[in-house]
Amino acid sequence: MLAYILRRLLLIIPTLFGILLINFLIIQAAPGGPVEQMIAKLEGFDSAAGGATGRISGGGAEVAVAGSNYRGAQGLDPELVAEIEKMYGFDKPAPERFWLMIKNYLHLDFGTSFFRDARVTDLILEKLPVSISLGLWSTLIMYLVSIPMGIAKAVRHGSAFDVWTSSAIIVGYAIPAFLFAILLIVLFAGGSYFDWFPLRGLTSNNFDELSLGGKILDYFWHLALPVTALVIGNFATLTLLTKNSFLDEINKQYVVTARAKGLSEHRVLYGHVFRNAMLLIIAGFPSAFIGIFFTGSLLIEVIFSLDGLGLLSFESALNRDYPVVFGTLFIFTLLGLIVKLIGDLTYTLVDPRIDFESREG
């Protein structure tokens, strides 16, 4: 098993390199880069993503002002345009810039944000607690709710309990998480009815003055609504997957044999069926965690004014803040690969018969 873990860890390096390279190449063709946005500001235009009228060729490495690829540079001093390029590091050819980026990433140096006047590492560390809070608690609660409910639905398949819980699951699946978030705000955050929960941030303004118990309560008080919105919007698929997985195992011959031997229903269900049925559930854990951790929480962060990594990466992509874009991409990919490895290792905890090392051999 140790050899398998080492091989997987070593594979992370070329995987990260390949993902960064592909995204770097795509970025070269994207219009409205940081140089163009700065030129647009100098010309008096408000440059949003893609708002600049020009196009970067080769990632901004080419500039000609009289017939320039930066159309917004018409009339500007060529030395000023060259200075802007140098400020953003676009005075070097694309391969050299990529090599410098990779070399810095080996030292976990993600550079400095183009527009936030802060190091990318500091920005990520500042936003990370919000994303970890949303992703961790949402995934944990979702699994704690969905797995027992899925098992109960499988055992009571076709009963009244199965029917009315299926109705609730269909509603949860059909309505996006952000709509549930808005509904929760209207009902419980001072919208139109009750004002029980806060609407902004992860902690209160007087958080540092609270006792340890008060800090814990304040933290979960702020998380209650956004985590609830994420759980309601994402638990439906996992619940149905659990139910169908258990139903498939319950109908197999070894279950009939176990019951014929006189084993209790609890022993059959949790001593035999659970181990086999949970393999499929565990397989989806990495994608579920990463999905909620980053992409799934973007709108929730916006609605509840939670400044996390999802919002940071989205705004950076719009503003073409490349150091932040690639820094967050690196973190997202690295965590995703590590969580995937953890998911594979969890297989062996559920079913010790699985041996990845012998399969690869």
TrEMBL record:
- Which membrane topology describes this protein? Multi-pass membrane protein
Q: Which organism is it from?
A: Metapseudomonas boanensis
* Listed name of the protein: Microcin C ABC transporter permease YejB
Taxonomically, what lineage is the organism? Bacteria, Pseudomonadati, Pseudomonadota, Gammaproteobacteria, Pseudomonadales
Membership in a protein family: Belongs to the binding-protein-dependent transport system permease family.
Q: What is its main location?
A: membrane
Its keywords, alphabetically, are: Cell membrane, Membrane, Transmembrane, Transmembrane helix, Transport
Q: Where in the cell is it found?
A: Cell membrane
ABC transmembrane type-1 domain location, by residue?
128-343
